[in-house]
Design a protein that fits this description.
Order of helices and strands of chain A: HHH
Shape of chain B: elongated
Largest sheet of chain B: 7 strands, mixed
Oligomer: heterodimer
Helix content of chain B: 40-55%
Shape of chain A: elongated
Largest sheet of chain A: none
Radius of gyration of chain B: 32 Å
Helix content of chain A: over 70%
Number of strands of chain B: 26
Distance between the termini of chain B: 45 Å
Number of domains of chain B: 5
Distance between the termini of chain A: 49 Å
Structural class of chain B: alpha+beta
Structural class of chain A: mainly alpha
Largest interface: A-B, 38 and 42 residues
Number of strands of chain A: 0
Radius of gyration of chain A: 18 Å
Chain lengths: 64, 747
């Protein structure tokens, strides 16, 4: 029974982490372009001005 | 839990303003451009690169699903018009997006998604606890552990339900205030009663605890709601893209005589607009200067251009053909055609009445039945002598079992599958209840110009015209934007002729073209202009060409039907649809088109009010009419029809009024839409049957008190999965158009 004392909170915390990750993804627009995202993954990032994550991150947030 | 979330969110939120000041030095602005032909990942990066290479652009991010690109640019260095032009040079059709309610609707969809996330998290965790309790029933779980698990479930489920269930509670309160019952009333009642009773049982240390069922119900119902909403957002975005691409810019002459280019939506009455030859007129107005011919097939259905002089009224959406004119905008004038059509449309829309959706109709029967069953169960057990507590518990089990989870998923799941299938075929379904109404139609009324026909005149029997005459006529015709002249040039280039002309061609509005050559005068135009003898055929659809004193050559034209018009009309008639043709064009042209498409019932010279009248006659005689039209003159009829379709080339007002828009040069999407709509209706009914069948099985068990929380939860999920799976079959199945009159009712 004592195992429950930490198993249940552990389960809840893990669940909350998942939920927090989902809400973060939702708020930062990760679900806005599901089609495009699948293409971006396989694209050669030959253009350095679009590739850095900080840059595109910035764009996306501004787009909101 | 909520607190942890909020603080997490606020971190994300706070970083935004922190970034802003570094950019604030430049006057940075953000614009969203619609890019029509961005279809793959390659196009996406090409669009981004083209924009980034343009001067003044800080960043560009394309959204492939929405076919839009958002760019941040330095307002001092460039403007949206330039960016659109940059993309055009790179081979993309682009236009600035007009922001409308799209934003709020997209927000609503992501709000639902957030609620799904929260309820999903809660459902999963409550389930973990519930499964332990069920397992504990078989083994040796003691009462204190069970109570602990129940309390933990309550702690997780209650806040989650209070947050995630809000859309249903709000809608239910709204319905009750309006003294109606909708699906959300039994849903809300079921969720609230189940939570309340479970809390009571938890306090008492009982074992009829339904937190798992209540939260799972909320989660599944939210998924149905979200599917519904995302279909709507997608369709609306696509429809707005179509309209945005047609948005015009206009050349305005200021009081100082300077001409400026401004977006058409910035025009206001009284402005003087310069319309060059070949341009679409952006406003309703009066001609101030110049004489020209106006092609107004979108407004009147008439394929022939109209001659306008100073003082004549011209309408937005028509095309100026011959020479440039100056127009004073009179958009607010009560007497413009647009205003009249808007009035007709309003009246027609009120007349359409409120269509009650299938799901709501089901709810009207279902909701009272559920409440009655619950009440009977309670009373029955009271009479049988069980305590009020047991009786109430069983009544709640009935409510949970009957909670229309599958019913609420039945229609949205089918809608998603059906609209997804149509979307792939180039049909954008706009109205949420459009598919249901389309499925019930039994009569199809077509407009002629631009709907049944391509809307561009074609030369009749070009093979009888000798090549020399065609080449010379084409050389003259190349100087005009008159639809007939352009048809001649098309035929000539199809024959491999390249029209060549030195110049000296003059166009006289309403008459024709003339050129002086050393060999004499050449003329191309009406019979009177050329001096030809009428040969008895329809003179308004004929151009004549004469060189010097030679015998004039006639060129006859017709507005050719779409390539598959005949087969589509044939298939519709075979399926039992009555097909009619209503046109504002001349009888001769209409009868030809009707014969070509195989339509027996046609009317010509019908005014917008006349079309409306015909549709009313049809509906009073018990027909449900699908109106297919594209012109301004069809807009009231589109609004009045039981359901309506419009090609993507239609005027804005039609695309707004129509339930669905189809793209492409063929007419077959009309057939496909009807097929899918009827199949969707059949599947919805099947889904209702599945949901009801499951209820018929489980409700007696629940009333008899045999349903444990485990059975309730399992049965509910199973029926939802069955319903969704059934709907998904619609995506890939081969469909045939069902004959009219079959309701498609199968168990």
């Amino acid at each position: 029974m004592t195992a429950l004392a930490w198993l249940i909170p552990a389960a809840l915390v893990l669940g909350l982490l998942g939920l927090a990750a989902f809400l973060w993804a939702l708020n930062s627009g990760q679900f806005e372009d599901l089609e495009g995202a699948s293409w971006r993954a396989i694209q050669d990032s030959d253009a350095p001005d679009t590739a850095p994550s900080a840059d595109s991150d910035d764009t996306r947030r501004n787009a909101k | 839990m909520d607190k942890a979330l909020r603080s997490n969110l606020s971190i994300v939120g706070k970083r935004e303003p922190a970034l802003a000041p570094s950019h604030a030095v430049l006057t940075l602005k953000t614009v969203t451009l619609i890019v029509e032909n961005m279809r793959c990942g390659g196009c996406m990066s090409a669009v981004e690169k083209a924009l980034l290479a343009a001067p003044g652009v800080q960043s560009a991010r394309a959204n492939l699903s929405a076919k839009r690109v958002t760019a941040r640019y330095d307002a001092a260095a460039t403007d949206p018009e330039h960016l659109a032009a940059t993309l055009e040079r790179a081979g993309f059709k682009a236009a600035e997006a007009i922001d409308t309610s799209d934003e709020t609707q997209a927000n609503e969809a992501s709000d639902l998604l957030r609620r799904i996330g929260v309820s999903g998290f809660a459902a999963a965790n409550v389930m973990v606890l519930s499964v332990s309790v069920w397992a504990g029933l078989a083994s040796d779980m003691d009462a204190s552990a069970q109570a602990l698990f129940h309390w933990l479930s309550a702690l997780i489920a209650l806040p989650a339900i209070a947050y995630a269930g809000q859309p249903f509670f709000r809608s239910a309160v709204g319905a009750i205030r309006a003294a109606r019952l909708n699906m959300d009333v039994p849903i809300s009642l079921g969720i609230i009663l189940a939570s309340g009773m479970s809390l009571f049982q938890t306090m008492r240390g009982g074992d009829q605890v339904y937190f798992d069922a209540a939260i799972m119900l909320t989660c599944l119902l939210l998924i149905g709601r979200f599917l519904d909403e995302s279909v709507r957002v997608r369709a609306k975005g696509a429809a707005e893209n179509l309209l945005g691409l047609k948005a015009l810019s206009a050349t305005v002459v200021g009081t100082d005589g300077q001409a400026r280019r401004i977006p058409a939506r910035a025009l206001s009455p009284g402005m003087r607009v310069l319309v060059a030859a070949g341009e679409r007129i952006p406003v309703d107005g009066r001609v101030e200067n110049g004489t020209s011919e106006i092609e107004e097939s979108l407004i009147t259905g008439e394929t022939l251009p109209r001659l306008v002089r100073v003082g004549a009224d011209v309408h937005a959406g028509t095309v100026n053909i011959t020479s440039s004119i100056e127009v004073t905008a009179t958009a607010t004038d009560e007497h413009t055609l647009i205003a009249e059509i808007a009035r007709l449309m309003q009246a027609a829309e009120q007349g359409r009445g409120r269509y009650v959706r299938l799901a709501d109709r089901a709810a009207q029967v279902y909701a009272p039945a559920v409440h009655l069953l619950g009440a009977f169960t309670f009373l029955g057990w009271m009479i049988a002598g069980a305590g009020w507590e047991t009786a109430l518990t069983y009544a709640i089990a009935v409510l949970i079992i009957t909670c229309p989870c599958a019913l609420a998923l039945a229609v949205p799941a089918v809608q998603v599958a059906a609209t997804g299938r149509l979307f792939a075929k180039g049909v954008i379904v706009k109205a949420p209840d459009a598919l249901e109404r389309l499925a019930e139609t039994d009569t199809v009324v077509f407009d002629k110009t631009g709907t049944l026909t391509i809307g561009q005149p074609q030369l009749v029997a070009p093979e009888v015209i000798c090549t020399a005459a065609l080449a010379q006529a084409a050389a003259l015709a190349a100087h005009s934007r008159h639809p007939y002249a352009m048809a001649i040039v098309r035929i000539a280039s199809a024959r491999g002729l390249t029209p060549r002309w030195g110049g000296g061609v003059r166009e006289v509005a309403g008459a024709g073209l003339v050129a002086e050559t050393p060999q004499g005068e050449e003329r191309l135009g009406s019979a009177a202009w050329v001096g030809a003898e009428a040969d008895g055929s329809d003179q308004t659809a004929t151009l004549w060409y004469r060189k010097g004193a030679a015998v004039p050559t006639p060129f006859h034209f017709e507005d050719a039907p779409r390539s598959d018009a005949r087969s589509v009309v044939g298939d519709l008639q075979k399926a039992g649809y009555a097909v009619e043709l209503l046109s504002g064009d001349r009888p001769h042209a209409v009868s030809t088109a009707a014969a070509a498409a195989g339509i027996q019932e046609w009317r010509a010279g019908v005014r917008p009010a006349g079309k409306l009248g015909r549709l009313k006659d049809l509906s009073t005689s018990g027909h449900k009419v699908l109106m297919v039209g594209d012109g301004l003159n069809d807009a009231p009829a589109l609004a009045a029809g039981y359901a309506s379709l419009s090609p993507a080339t239609a005027v804005d007002i039609c695309q707004t009024a129509a339930d669905a828009i189809f793209q492409g040069e063929r007419l077959v999407p009309v057939l496909e839409t009807l097929k899918v709509a009827r199949a969707a209706r059949r599947m919805s009914l099947q889904n209702f049957a599945i949901a009801l069948g499951y209820n018929a099985f489980c409700v007696p068990l629940a009333m008899a008190g045999f349903v444990t929380p485990l059975i309730a939860a399992l049965a509910m999920s199973a029926s939802s999965i069955a319903v969704t799976g059934n709907a998904l079959r619609l995506r890939t199945r081969r469909l045939a158009l069902e004959p009219v009159g079959t309701k498609g009712k199968q168990a």
